[in-house]
Design a protein that fits this description.
The structure holds four protein chains of four kinds. Chain B has five helices and seven strands. Chain B is of the alpha/beta class. The longest helix of chain B has 12 residues. Chain B is globular. By secondary structure, chain D is mainly α. The mean pLDDT of chain D is 85. The chains are: A alpha/beta, B alpha/beta, C alpha+beta, D mainly alpha. Chains in contact: A-B, A-C, A-D, B-C, C-D. Chains B and C meet through strand 3, helix 4 and helix 5 of B and helix 8, strand 6, strand 7, strand 8 and helix 12 of C.
């Protein structure tokens, strides 16, 4: 598990300010280019012109963890790669989120069998994962839905999505 | 530069009894040679002079010891030759990295996954597994496998 | 080669990890580089960060259970890996796929080859700093993914070929979509040529960079566009025709001095040849069944078999030792990028760091294919 | 007269104070409200996930130094053009233009000299 002390919150904590900041953070997620295997190609396809992640403000793929606030673990995590993932997660500044993309990152996927010696079955054994996107590889639409649910999680409710706010049924369960 | 003159060259190195042709349609290779570990550098040089390139080096773990499989091929004609070397359990192989540079990684991978050591290999360390791994995964008694047979009952009666 | 514990850097040189998480290593390859200012002095490619143990997995799974593994080894030419594995086991077990299935396999394989080259084109130009070709190439590639998705159900990791045929028959919507795609992509060559081939910066960045000549390629066992870029017309589809490639007429483009520009041109011209194959296969598509009845568990007779096929990166080979049971005794996958990547240790020392990225991109590697 | 001078200095003073405040507020604001995370490897240098070997404080080749020198020459050159821009074209337009051409030409000789010396040629040492 990433050894990370429970960080103290911000020095000045205002509810309204937090809400505004979360709204801004949710709509400008900067993911870190971190493709491990097949899911990386679907991540690139999502960033390309057809599925266009830019509509959600999330396609600014930053190579270095210092400038990114979302780590997408896209692909199979081999045991040799595990310490690197933990290092990258720790080198990301707060606030940071993690998205486990694809079955390999969720639970080892098609390579998890009795006698498997080479892979770590799941990214949540290494870093705290916020959103799981199932699929092998998940279709670009599934990844975009992952981004939307992460944005919902950041803003703690559907106020972000104006249309959904007017649907009476959906708004209640938050 | 085709496989005939490689066959003649190899027959000088290895005794002719262990050189036998294979049916390309069924098995995909034309010539198969059973060799001793010591003859490998000579075989590699002969293949290099005949203009062959090294397709791969791998090993297959059997009850009476692993069999190292070297495979050479040529670009112009279909002339795939396989060299099989039966090893005892802890025996080591001479490295042919000086003749074929591709062999350096293949040998490191065979050492990594099978534990077969290669003498005078410039940089024999693990290739695929993390450096601190202490097991050789592709050996049959590691982990769960379907069967653990001896070499005779696979190779001997296959062409009968 | 560099020893394991590198000696302390002299005053001019320092060590850099073009490490597993790097935008231009196309996956989790780590280049441990000793730099002297801008110049690369020594390079030690460290692989294994994408190692999943495919070969160990094969020894405890049935032949059918290993099918999904094949497209996940090289996910850019997944159909080609799938087709090669199925053809290998069919040859071992003596199963004969009906002619219609063979033609469908060749059509889908060539579509996948074009998709793989387009993906490479986009990623390579992005390495060199040009972002527009990435969107051009991915736009065309999405067409292929739609066509193959319609018939095989997945965009990248196809499990479409089965022992004895293919999973589903194609319909005339597939055929018409493929013909439209072929026409559309042919119209795009002009765009690619104007945007990239005639681009002065691209020519200066790739001409005479990373020269892999014939002898170097043979010493390292390179195959595919890397070898053809050096001038050797070796293509497994022509050298050892499998499936119905024997009846297709297409030629093999080769470069002359084996630099990054020649490899680029070879891949661009290869896409055109693949389109020709697709058209011929579509014209001669026989009707009839797409599967023959095969036993529930395939049990090939004892012995060892080798089957070679041509993927987008080079000559792929399955070396299968069977002990007559329903699980392979040993399954070795001879992968083309293995040899292609090794040439880095020879051609990189002395080049600039920017050229390192250009050379690495031009040999087009996929890391889980090398690590297996 | 002194009142006028003092008045002018007032502008400069206000401009200075606003500048400083404008610079410091984001730093203080983010120091206050930014969430914090402490972790073991947070301070280590980022080298694509690996631990960096050796330090980067080494003597590197002189080519970089000469590159920056050329930049410096032109940076200062632009500095002198600012005041010229204020008075350009007031009386004799042609004279001003000619002066600037001469000024820039003389400075560009530094580029020509560096070019001849081969600073821009990064030959590959194969």
């Amino acid at each position: 598990m990433a050894v990370e002390k429970i960080a103290p919150g911000p020095r000045v904590h205002l509810a309204v300010l937090d809400e505004v900041l979360n709204l801004c953070r949710a709509n400008s997620l900067w993911p870190m280019t971190f493709g491990l295997a097949c899911c990386a190609i679907e991540m690139m396809a999502t960033g390309a012109s057809r599925f266009d992640l830019d509509r959600f403000g999330a396609a600014v793929f930053r190579p270095s963890p210092r400038q990114s606030d979302l780590m997408i673990v896209a692909g199979t995590i081999s045991k040799k790669m595990a310490p690197t993932i933990v290092t990258l997660w720790e080198q990301m500044p707060a606030p940071k989120w993690c998205m486990a993309m694809g079955n390999c990152a969720i639970s080892g996927g098609p390579f998890e069998f009795e006698g498997q010696y080479a892979i770590v079955p799941g990214a949540d054994l290494l870093v705290p994962v916020d959103v799981y996107v199932p699929g092998c590889p998940p279709r670009p639409e599934a990844l975009i839905q992952g981004f939307l649910s992460l944005e919902d999680k950041i803003t703690k409710g559907e106020r972000r999505n104006v249309i959904r706010r007017f649907k009476k049924s959906a708004g209640k369960n938050r | 530069m085709s496989s005939e003159d490689l066959k003649r060259a190899l027959e000088k190195i290895v005794e002719p009894s262990s050189v036998h042709a294979r049916d390309y349609e069924r098995n995909g290779c034309l010539l198969e040679i059973g060799a001793e570990p010591g003859q490998l550098p000579a075989i590699a040089r002969a293949a290099r002079d005949a203009g062959f390139f090294l397709e791969f080096i791998t090993a297959v773990d059997f009850a009476d010891g692993p069999v190292a499989v070297y495979q050479f091929n040529e670009c112009e004609t279909i002339s795939r030759t396989q060299v099989k070397v039966q090893l005892a359990r802890e025996e080591s192989l001479p490295s042919i990295g000086s003749v074929y540079d591709a062999a350096l990684w293949y040998e490191r991978e065979v050492f990594d996954l099978f534990g077969i050591r290669f003498d005078n290999h410039p940089d024999l360390r693990r290739l695929l597994l993390p450096e601190d791994a202490d097991f050789h995964p592709l050996l049959k008694e590691y982990g769960k496998v379907h069967a653990f047979r001896s070499a005779r009952d696979i190779y001997d009666d296959q062409d009968a | 080669m560099m020893t394991r514990t590198p000696e302390p850097a002299t005053e001019h040189t320092f060590y850099l990890n073009l490490g597993p998480q790097h935008p231009s290593t196309h996956g989790v390859l780590r280049l441990f580089v000793k730099l002297d200012g801008e110049y690369v002095m020594e390079v030690d490619p460290i692989i294994g960060y994408g190692h999943r143990g495919h070969e160990k997995m094969a020894e405890s799974h049935f032949y059918e259970q290993f099918l999904p593994n094949t497209p996940r080894m090289d996910y850019l030419s997944g159909m080609l890996f799938n087709h090669a594995y199925v053809a290998a086991v069919e040859k071992m077990a003596g199963i004969k796929a009906p002619p219609r299935a063979e033609y469908i396999r060749v059509i889908c394989a060539e579509l996948n080859r074009v998709a793989s080259h387009l993906m490479w084109l986009g990623a390579y130009l992005m390495d060199l700093g040009g972002v527009t070709p990435f969107f051009y190439a991915f736009d065309d590639r999405e067409n292929i993914l739609d066509i193959l998705d319609r018939v095989s159900g997945s965009r990248l990791t196809y499990n479409y070929c089965r022992f004895g045929g293919v999973a589903r028959d194609i319909d005339d919507i597939f055929i018409e979509a493929t013909r439209d795609f072929v026409k559309r992509l042919r119209g795009r060559w002009k765009d690619y040529n104007n945007l990239v081939t005639k681009n002065v910066i691209f020519i200066h960045r790739t001409r005479d960079v990373g020269v892999i000549d014939k002898d170097l390629a043979l010493r390292f066992g390179c195959t595919g566009p890397v070898l053809r870029g050096a001038g050797v017309p070796y293509d497994v589809r022509k050298a050892e025709p499998y499936s119905v490639y024997g009846e297709m007429d297409f030629d093999i483009p080769t470069g002359d001095n084996g630099d990054a520009f020649d490899r680029y041109m070879v891949r661009l011209l290869e896409m055109e040849q693949s389109l020709r194959i697709i058209e011929q296969a579509l014209d001669r598509l026989p009707d009839g069944p797409v599967t023959t009845p095969t036993p529930r568990k395939v049990r090939p007779p004892k012995g060892d078999y080798y089957f070679a096929a041509e993927t987008a990166r080079g000559a792929l080979g399955y070396y299968i030792v069977s002990d007559g049971s329903e699980c392979p005794y040993r399954l070795k996958v001879r992968v083309p990028s293995y040899g292609n990547l090794q040439t880095l240790t020879e051609i990189l020392p002395g080049t600039l760091v920017a050229d390192t990225i250009c050379i690495l991109g031009s040999i087009d590697i996929v890391v889980p294919e090398i690590d297996r | 007269m002194p009142g006028q001078v003092l008045h002018d200095f007032l502008y400069v003073g206000v401009f200075l104070v606003v500048g400083v405040i404008f610079a410091l507020t984001p730093i203080i604001l983010s120091w206050l409200i930014a969430p914090r995370s402490e972790s073991a490897k947070r301070a280590e240098t980022y080298e694509s996930g690996m631990t960096a070997l050796g330090s980067a404080w080494i003597q590197f080749s002189v080519a970089y130094y000469i590159y920056t020198l050329i930049f410096l020459a032109f940076d200062v050159d632009v500095l002198y053009l600012f005041p010229v821009a204020l008075v350009y074209g007031k009386q004799f337009v042609f004279r001003d233009f000619l002066e600037i051409v001469i000024f820039v030409f003389i400075l560009s000789l530094a580029i020509v000299y560096a070019w001849r010396k081969g600073v821009f040629k990064w030959q590959s040492k194969r």
